[in-house]
Specification:
The complex is a heterodimer of chains A (about 140) and B (about 170).
Chain A (H helix, E strand, L loop, with lengths): L3 H6 L7 H17 L3 H24 L3 H9 L2 H20 L20 H24 L1
Chain B lengths: L1 H19 L2 H18 L8 H26 L15 H4 L10 H13 L3 H12 L4 H8 L3 H22 L5
Helix pairs in contact in B: 1-2, 1-3, 2-3, 3-7, 5-8, 6-8, 7-8
Classes of the chains: A mainly alpha (about 140), B mainly alpha (about 170).
């Protein structure tokens, strides 16, 4: 801010801030009051359009209950729902679950195991079973 | 709502036209703002309508400026002639000699010319704070900046206007 003495040195008379603000505000008000008729008509049309947009939206928005009732009594709905239900039941009854059994790895195929090993495994199994039986009879 | 729009429409149009410099664009912005207010915020208390409406309008104006910037970048070879708004006679704003007898219209034309020379933020701040009489808080909310920034913009706007008007009415002793 300039001090008053500095302003005096510049030998100028400047309006105060309030005067400047008032002057611009008056100019703006005057400009608004002297808008051409064509502009006023355009503004009025825009306002009417905006107000009408609400009515259009209101009329296009039906209550939810009305929408549901109308939907229930729709002929397509009457036919479509039983058909869809029948198809669903048919599929669920006739559905066969085919679970794929994974193949054994080749290393475990019996063809590769020697016959002596098989005999030994069978013996081992028999001995284990025998030991278990003896233990149970002792107890 | 209709009474509110009726009360505010001319000023809002003026604000949009001042910022865009185009009658058609100002009408578009005004229409968009009005439609949004009517369809989305009609249920709000009526005392909230004014700041809400100006917030919508200022957002639209900001978007418009962004689009213009992009458009100018993409189509830099096109030099669109933007119609001057408000339609003022430049001769009216320039005051050559103190002897020139100024009419009221000429003074008002000069004041608007000065307002046009402010930066967009200062213009916006001045119009909202001074002309529309909105509070600092509302103006800050509309301009999406702090209250301190609003005060700074307003102070600078008034200082510039004062300086420009002082230069117009300059009397050398």
């Amino acid at each position: 801010m300039k001090s008053p003495s500095k302003e005096d040195n510049e030998d100028k008379i400047k309006p105060t801030g309030n005067e400047a603000v008032q002057s611009v505000n008056n100019a703006l008000d005057h400009s608004v009051h002297t808008l051409p008729d064509s502009t006023l008509a355009d503004i009025a049309r825009v306002r009417a359009l905006a107000l009408n947009s609400k009515n259009v939206r209101m009329s296009s928005q039906k209550p939810i209950l009305d929408t549901i009732i109308a939907w229930l009594f729709n002929p397509m709905f009457k036919i479509g729902v039983p058909v869809a239900a029948a198809i669903t039941i048919f599929i669920s009854v006739n559905y066969v679950s085919v679970e794929a059994i994974p193949e054994l790895p080749l290393a475990m195929m019996a063809a590769d195991i020697p016959t002596e090993d098989f005999a030994m495994l069978e013996d081992l199994e028999f001995i284990t079973w025998l030991a278990k039986n003896e233990q149970s009879t002792l107890l | 709502m209709e009474a509110f729009l009726l009360d505010i429409e001319k000023r809002a149009y003026h604000m949009a036209a001042f910022s865009t410099g185009s009658h058609a664009d100002a009408l578009d912005l005004l229409q968009d703002s009005m439609i949004k207010l009517v369809t989305k915020y009609q249920d709000k208390p009526s005392k909230e309508w004014k700041p809400l409406f100006y917030k919508i309008l200022q957002n639209r104006i900001r978007d418009w400026h962004r689009h213009q910037k992009v458009k100018n970048l993409l189509f830099f070879w096109k030099n669109d002639e933007i119609e001057e708004w408000p339609p003022t006679n430049k001769e009216d704003g320039v005051l050559d000699t103190p002897e020139k007898n100024l009419t009221k219209d000429q003074q008002q034309g000069a004041a608007l010319e000065h307002l046009k020379q402010l930066s967009p933020k200062q213009q916006q701040c001045f119009l909202l704070r001074s002309w529309e009489g909105l509070s600092v808080a509302d103006t800050a909310d509309i301009m999406q900046c702090s209250q301190g920034s609003v005060k700074t913009h307003y102070f600078r706007a008034v200082s510039k206007l004062r300086t420009m008007m002082g230069d117009d009415h300059e009397i050398t002793f």
